[in-house]
Amino acid sequence: MSRITIVGGGLVGSLLAIFLAKRGHKVNVYERRGDPRRTDVYAGRSINLVVSHRGWTALRAAGVEEAVKAITVPVHARMMHDREGNLNRVPYSIDNRAIHSVSRGELNRRLLTEAEKLPNVKVHFDHRCVDVDLQTATCHFQREEGDHVVVEADVVFGSDGAFSAVRSKMMLGRFSYSQEYIEHDYKEVAFPANPDGTPKMDPQCLHIWPRRWFMMMGLANQDGGFTGTLFMPHAATKDSPGFDTVRTEAEVTAFFKAHFADAMPIVPDIVDQYLRNPQSNLVIIRCAPWQVNGKVALIGDAAHAIVPFYGEGMNAGYEDCKVLNDLLDAHGDDNWAEVMHRYASVRKPNGDAIADLSMRNFVEMRDLVADPQFLLRRKIEGHLQARHPDKWLPLYSQVKFTDIAYKDAWEEGLRHDRIMEEVMRLPGIEEKWESAEVEKKALGLLG
After folding, report:
1. Predicted TM-score (pTM) of this structure
2. Which of 14, 65, 281, 439 would bridge 111 by S-S if both were Cys, CB 3.0 to 4.6 A apart?
3. CATH match of 3-39+62-69+105-178+283-361 with 3.50.50.60
């Protein structure tokens, strides 16, 4: 049995605690914020999450699948809203597979409760990590009341998010690090339910208002409402408004009337919410190494923070936990040096790949989903998959509905791009997209 300190009690830290405690380790979780079951630490800043295949695989392995499933809403398709309010529904897969929408706060609360059911887990809130000894796995915390706490352990996991205190300590040594803010920020917009609790939009769709340089999206909650998010450039460009030019009540009202008119009746206080809710930024973190001395390791966003446009950030963190658990099965719970080394070697390339995939999907959601050529390409890919499921699996399905490594999915997706560029150049493709000629061309290029 090892003494384990987990810094960060969010989505990944709480699941990691469950995995490790069920292996018999003594687990202490230290969270900088207050208990989310007693205070709303996510107020006004939440982006709804989706649980996909990788997330469910990890949750099942940890024994908490049913506890989480009870708070999710299945989502089978994207629903695009154009400027005139017309709708276009595009299924995620040809076999009607679903991802599952879940409130970030509700999921965190549920997993903390599941973790605290285990006798060898202790969660400490309002403890800010101020130092980590990478040689001895000793952590120093500052409590909100002002006193200093020193915690000795055998192993430390930094699960403390994109701006990780554990990673900051690791960066003082031989460490590679990049931090990239994308040009877009976001604001939360809450979509209310009808007075009787029914949803105002189809709850089994991810609703997207694509506007080329900016967009709004919404995912359903169990109460009939939706958590919406507006993504827009931090600063205006020649092509797009920005948060810096949409500030006054008059500017905000004009902005929503011009670009999201069909949302205004659904969210009567949308202007007030925009003016009231905080503006948050989006960052991509890449770093290496993910572990030091077989005693301290990064996991989740602390290792690979990404933008939310593939809905895979949490799922990637949960897959981290599952891979770590599998490595402990293979190499033993007393062989942390080997387990940590293998964990970092396996997961680092996949963390980089899902960062690339997420930015790719941002462009797709913001812009391409409204492009007739893109929609035709999706129809062709669906036709190829239906006819040859053993040969053609679209990139989205590889990422969301399989265990294919992110790195391998990314490489195969790039190969599909090259093939489909040639297919889409065939004369008369709009009329003959289901033809044997198109199928032969694509499969011939696939090899």
Report:
1. 0.93
2. 14
3. yes
